[in-house]
Design a protein that fits this description.
The longest helix has 23 residues. By secondary structure, this protein is of the alpha/beta class. The protein has a domain of about 240 residues: Rossmann fold (3-Layer(aba) Sandwich). The relative contact order is 0.13. Helix content is about 45%, strand content about 15%. It contains 13 helices and twelve strands. Bound molecules: nicotinamide-adenine-dinucleotide and thymidine-5'-diphosphate (TYD).
Length: about 350
């Protein structure tokens, strides 16, 4: 039986990837390596309970011995690296975990994979891939009329999160250049969709709206993000894994630049339609709050290379994807209640205290 090894497969994108992967006929089994931080949630993977194709290991990517043993036992044909600390605001309050997981963890994983790869036979070596899942935030912030980020855009990370992801991207690149490891890197724009932890903009706004709480918009609400439905990110990763050229990087995006205020207005309008309040609109709950320090103004992805070279295109528009997402949250309120732990409540109290 062939395997792929996924890190961070209990988080938002990793879990969506694992679910989508195993829904394909004839898919390789998945070895899912996740530390289960506050952001990891096995309930997301409950539909795989009893499915022998999903092997879960609660392990830290900084634990070299655990990685060596999993690689030795399962001999994966590919490693897909999703595990990371991923929330910019948390990286501002406490960058240390970001350095540890995103930089030291990626380094530890690369070292384990380098040793594993060195012992593979020629045919296994030729087929093996290490796919590193990264972000467009490594490119920094765009002005209103700047062209979108391409794969050639210089790195200029501004937050501890994006700086730690940039460092990990550079390590991955170096392991190709120096050791010949067959790596692929994807730099994707902001994702949204099912199983998104409710500390990020879209799920936070849906959750707060339904709970009658303020909808906290940072600064003037005119920062721009380029949104992609998570299922489309997963399909892009599958394409890059199957046909990407080792050593290359691929930008992934949905051609959906929106201001935060536009996003929040659209969410309120969808909720007004799908679950109207007794009186008034969810828009009445919008509250402008203190801006994020060093808040990047605009991200925008040129995903032309992926389309030209691998034929990938997103299946969802922002409108169809957001409607699906709101409908998913409305019908999965128990998932949200489960992930809103004591730890999460402490975070909300600290972050939105002012
Ligand atoms: P997430 O925070 O929802 O999930 C991260 C997962 O990694 C969690 O399950 C967590 O338990 C696990 N993890 C954290 N530290 C670990 C460690 N030391 N060892 C093992 N597991 C650990 O993140 P996400 O939004 O799913 O993002 C996944 C990847 O995609 C990240 O690398 C992120 O940088 C990248 N990315 C995210 C977005 C986005 O919009 N969310 C966009 C582009 C790229
Ligand atoms: P976020 O979902 O944290 O993603 P990222 O910072 O990685 O882009 O935030 C998306 C945008 O929404 C970003 O410009 C910050 C803004 N934002 C708010 O206005 N209010 C909030 O409560 C949050 C969490 C984010």
């Amino acid at each position: 039986m062939s395997h792929i090894l996924v890190t961070g497969g209990a988080g938002f994108i990793g879990a969506n990837f694992v679910l989508n992967w195993l829904a394909q006929a004839g898919a390789d089994s998945v070895v899912n390596v996740d530390k289960l931080t506050y952001a990891g949630n096995l309930k997301t993977l409950a539909s795989l309970d009893g499915d022998a194709r999903h092997i879960f290991s609660r392990s830290d990517i900084c634990d070299r011995a655990a990685l060596d043993s999993l690689l030795k036992q399962y001999r994966p044909r590919a490693v897909l690296h999703f595990a990371a600390e991923s929330h910019v605001d948390r990286s501002i309050h406490g960058p240390a975990d970001f350095i540890e997981t995103n930089i030291v963890g990626t380094f530890t994983l690369l070292e384990a994979v380098r040793a594993y790869y060195a012992d593979l036979g020629d045919a296994e070596k030729a087929a093996f891939r290490f796919l590193h899942v990264s972000t467009d935030e490594v490119f920094g912030s765009l002005g209103p009329t700047d062209p979108q980020f391409t794969e050639a855009t210089a790195y200029a990370p501004n937050s501890p999160y994006s700086a730690s992801k940039a460092a990990s991207d550079h390590l991955v690149r170096a392991y190709h250049h120096t050791y010949g490891l067959p790596v692929l890197t994807t730099n994707c724009s902001n994702n949204y969709g099912p199983y998104h932890f409710p500390e990020k903009l879209i799920p936070l706004m849906i959750t707060n709206a339904l709970n009658g709480k303020p909808l906290p918009v940072y600064g003037d609400g005119l920062n721009v993000r380029d949104w992609l439905y998570v299922g489309d990110h997963c399909s892009a990763i599958r394409e890059v894994l199957a046909r990407g050229v080792p050593g290359e990087t691929y930008n992934v995006g949905g051609w959906n630049e929106k201001t935060n205020l536009d996003v929040v207005h659209t969410l309120c309008d969808l909720l007004d339609e799908l679950q109207p309040k007794a009186a008034g609109s969810y828009r009445d709950q919008i509250a402008f709050v203190k801006d994020r320090p060093g808040h990047d103004r605009r991200y925008a992805i040129d995903a032309g290379k992926l389309e030209r070279e691998l034929g990938w295109k997103p299946a969802e528009t922002f409108e169809t994807g957001l409607r699906k997402t709101v409908q998913w949250y409305l019908s999965h309120q128990s998932w949200v209640e489960d992930v809103i732990s004591g730890d999460y409540r402490n975070w909300v109290a600290k972050q939105y205290a002012a």
